[in-house]
Description:
Layout: H1 4-8, H2 14-24, E1 36-42, H3 50-69, E2 74-80, H4 96-100, H5 120-134, E3 140-143, H6 144-150, H7 154-162, H8 164-172, H9 177-180, E4 186-188, E5 203-205, E6 210-214, E7 220-224, E8 230-232, H10 234-245, E9 249-253, H11 260-269, E10 276-280, E11 283-284, H12 301-307, H13 310-318, E12 325-326, H14 332-345, H15 351-356, H16 358-362, H17 376-386, H18 391-401, H19 411-428, H20 439-453, H21 460-463, H22 467-481, H23 488-499, H24 507-514, H25 516-527
Parallel strand pairs: 1-2, 1-9, 2-3, 9-10, 11-12
Antiparallel strand pairs: 4-8, 5-6, 6-7
Amino acid sequence: MTSLRDAAMTSKAWPFEEARRLLKRYEKKDPEKGYVLFETGYGPSGLPHIGTFGEVARTTMIRRAFEVISDIPTKLLCFSDDMDGMRKVPTNVPNQDMLRKHEQEPLTSVPDPFGEYPSFGDHNNAMLRRFLDTFGFEYEFASATEYYKSGKFDDMLIRSAERYDDIMAIMLKSLREERQQTYSCFLPIHPETGRVLYVPMKEVNAKNGTVTFDDEDGREWTLPVTGGNVKLQWKPDFGMRWAALDVDFEMYGKDHSTNTPIYDGICRVLGGRAPEHFTYELFLDSNGEKISKSKGNGLSIDEWLTYASTESLSYFMYLKPKTAKRMHFDVIPKAVDEYHQQLRAFPDQDAEKQANNPVWHIHGGQPPESHMVVPFSMLLNLASVAGSSDKEGLWGFIKRYAPDATPETHPDLDQAAGFAVRYFTDFVAPERQFRLPSDLERAAIEDLRNQLAALPKTDLHVQFEDPADALQTIVFAVGKEHGFEPLRDWFKALYEVLLGASQGPRFGGFIALYGVDETIALIDRALAGELVA
Length: 533
């Protein structure tokens, strides 16, 4: 029997492919620091968003895959660039006038507009940590301010002064001519105003480890590069951090990909070994445009979690990370149902197939049991025809379909029922468009109604071993009998006439869930034109 480690060494699942690539980094010698370091970066100028979740979730998937194929310990460091200057005041926070007085100061020097933490940076860092803790990520947190001020970066900052010309040579190639005239990789923190200064250097003294510059008022200052007196511009900071911490792996979005040679080059100039990278594609909104925090287009993490579970979001993040994907509300039902399909399949799979199953990577090899005996898409249709305003209204139907199910024994189904009512109310109901059937469709739907009415008035579970399958056979046969070709036109007619949508559930399962008598009544209303009205 194939072991999981053996399966992982040949698995085509992308986390295992990345883990194997990372393992080659240490095929001759284990890391001197004693562990493999995964890193994710975060700019705390605003609240954590869905991209933050995706980056940490995907990095964690690769980390767990690496732990299967290697005995080298691992760490995940979530690094906050909280020493960046606040370039503009966010529009979604209070005390705007107060914040404007602190523009260009490091985020950890800007007062917290909410009045809860020592600084705005500390507030956003707390939000990040709460965010990560909510989802159960295992990580260590790092603050750029603490690393700069405590001296953890001092050696690399002195080396940056010593190799200033080499760093600048890399950077200047990427800048427009006018920007080249004033650019410096060092950003001094003004001793009096506390602002992050974007000014050219008059001198970088490698021997003394100092920089000399004129401030905006023309006064000359000389500051040590150590102790938090200066920071690096963000691109050099990327490479310096990799070298200082000996980072082994970091992923980032495609919009960073053109900077990879810069990050790598600066890391090497400073004596480090560039980490392994993974570049993922960006998310798109419903119109195919890149999701932007400033625009607010696309789907936020809070919005996703209003209508579906965290695990379904992780499943969506797992799928084809190198392919651009629409991130809109209509992807949620499919993600939920596919996630539970994979959960149900997992226990009966061999090690090779389990290694390729997304739920292995979502749950670190320990996926839970699925109790979703009713698909999310069918719950949505049930909410549609039952007119339920809460999940309790759906449970009467669910119990008839699955007599042994209860909210206590099937908590994921109970949660999904609540999500389904909410999703239906907000998205499905406003878009429903019922239509009258054609003559061909009317004859077929009447035939289906009559065949359902002819069934014995007993419990479906008494009549049939699998009620959903038996009813699907009846529906299928009616469509064939009435000459629908292709047969999907028959099901499309049922959905549009009875449910007001062009797509829908396996219809036999829907009848079993909603009830035979209830479906007959629904057909009668549709044929009488009441649904259209």
